Every structure is written in C-alpha cells, then in structure tokens.
Amino acid sequence: MIDVLGTGSAPRLVVFDLDGTLYPKEAYAEQVLAVIGRMFVELQGASEAHAEAKVAELREAMRTNWSGTSTTSFVRANGFDVAQWLEYRETHLSIADGLRRDDGVVRELGRLREVVPIVLLTNNTRGSMEAILGKVGIGTEGFTEVFSSEDSRDTPKPDPGAFQVVLDRLGVPAEGTWSVGDRVDIDIAPLQRLGGSGIAVDGPADLGAAVDHLIGLVRRA
C-alpha cells in the first residue's frame, strides 16, 4: 500500500531510494545490525555486551519506527564519523550477496523512465550500490543518474542537502520533484522540506502502484 505525500504536481524528476525500496528491507536489516555490532567492538574497543546492547537498541528502533530510523544517523550519534562508517561497511557488508534479480522492479522502473527522468539516491557507497543494482537486474544504466554517499558526503539522508545535490546536478526545482522510498522521515520528508513531494512504499511490491500514480500525474498535466 502506498502513501502519497505531496502537492499533486506533475513530476519532472523522480528520486528513488535503494535499501528497502528496490529490494526487501529484510535482506538489509540483519546484515547491517551485525556489521554495526562489530564496528563498536573493533573501532571503539567496546565490550561485546555494550555492542549487543547498541544493536538491540537499533533493532528496536527499526521494529517500532522503521520510517524514521537511519543507520547512518545512528552510527553518527554514537561517535562514528561518516567516513568511518562508509569505509567499514564497504569492507564488511555485502548485501548484494543475498539478492537476486527482480523482474518486477526492472519492469516498473522501465515504465516510469519512459515518461520522466528517474535517479537513485542512496547512502550506500558507490561500490555497494552498483553491486546491489546489478543483482536486482537494473544496473546503474537503468537510471538517468545515480547518487551515492560519495556525492552527498557530509549531508547524507535524512539531511535535505542530499536531495539538494540531486536538484542542483539535474537542474530541476524541488517543486517538480518526487521521491519514492520506504521511510518517510528519511526518504521523503527531507525533499518535502525543500518543496518536493513523495510516495512512501512498503517495499518493491508497491512499486507498481507508485509508478501508476506518477505516470497518471504526468499524463494529466
């Protein structure tokens, strides 16, 4: 089921999230939790008990407030800088290994790309992003442009600055831009603060409904 959050304006650009949006969040959460636990021990010298407590805290946040929980924000709040987090997850995390091709995702993105430019914006590193997109079957070539952590640098989502990077690069105003993601506070609210709109999805199974809505807006304009 989708949740449309916006003005109803016709999209001139659609920004897609990656994790939990173009592949199921279940393939992401437990792997990330395990890596964050290791990071507390190896980089901060924390005890196993402390690391387990922190992982439990993040797991509960994901369970009760998935829409508002950002792993990047969590690690930053616990003393890691963005560069540390990206380097560590690039070395120790391989979400792509557990994924497979999803023809439904490929089809829906292709339908939308025929009527409006689409881009990807993710807090993943470029290497991880490319591996995930390759396994799902889209590839970076499935988007007009892709934006990774290397592009947003010190303003990763949920910072609106991540979306501003996209808007500046594509030369599209926020008012004509829509975001599609599984977490309202992370993937949609930051663009709304700039004047844009969004559609919240529960995962890839909702992409068809989201694409139908966006195509309808384009055709009615």
Automatic annotation (TrEMBL):
InterPro entries: HAD-like_hydrolase_sf (IPR050155), HAD-like_sf (IPR036412), HAD_sf (IPR023214)
Keywords: Hydrolase
EC number(s) on file: 3.1.3.-
Classification via CDD domains: HAD_like (cd01427)
Protein name per Swiss-Prot or TrEMBL: HAD family hydrolase
GO MF annotation: an example: hydrolase activity
SUPFAM superfamilies with a match to the protein in the record: HAD-like
Enzyme class: hydrolase
